[in-house]
Amino acid sequence: MPRYPAQPVRLRGLLKENSSLAALLPEAERLRELNRLFARAVGPQLARACQVATIQGGIAVVYCGNGAAAARLRAQAATVTRALAGAKQPVTELKVKLRADWAQPSRPEKPGMGQKAVQAWEELEANPDDPDLKAAVARLIRHQRG
To answer: What is the pTM of this model?
Structure first.
């Protein structure tokens, strides 16, 4: 059974201690900043499907997890290029590549309330004197039933 350190250790500290990994830290920070600028320009949904991989010679290479995201990104290329131009390296062009394993997985669907929980809300709906509370509980029950 592995033993964990008594004190939590920051990832940055671990990377700096290991000289072979320490060389990767500046590049990782640069990519994080590029992807932050990218997400701000395209929005969260498209940012989950695409990631900036590198900037070489003024060309930003972005991998997308599906064709729809790639097409949408190509349509927004001018906006994204301007947003990424604010990074330390100038960006003049956007190269979009399709790679199905690159996208972040979508969030799993939340399970609904159990039958007992819905019954408890129905009992509460029958009792309150406050009409706003009664309406809110009724909306919750309708939402759970679909």
So the answer is: 0.59
pLDDT single digits (tens) 100-143: 776 666 667 777 788 888 888 888 788 778 888 888 888 888 88
Q: Tell me the residue type at 29.
A: E
Are 103 and 63 within 8 A, CB to CB? no
User: Quick one: pLDDT at residue 104?
Assistant: 62
Quote the radius of gyration of the chain (alpha carbons, Å). Answer: 24
43: left (phi over 0), alpha (psi -120 to 50) or beta: left
| CATH fold for domain 23-98 | GMP Synthetase; Chain A, domain 3 (3.30.300)
The domain spans of the chain are 23-98, 115-145
List C-alpha distances in Å: 52 to 21, 111, 117, 130, 137: 21, 33, 44, 52, 44
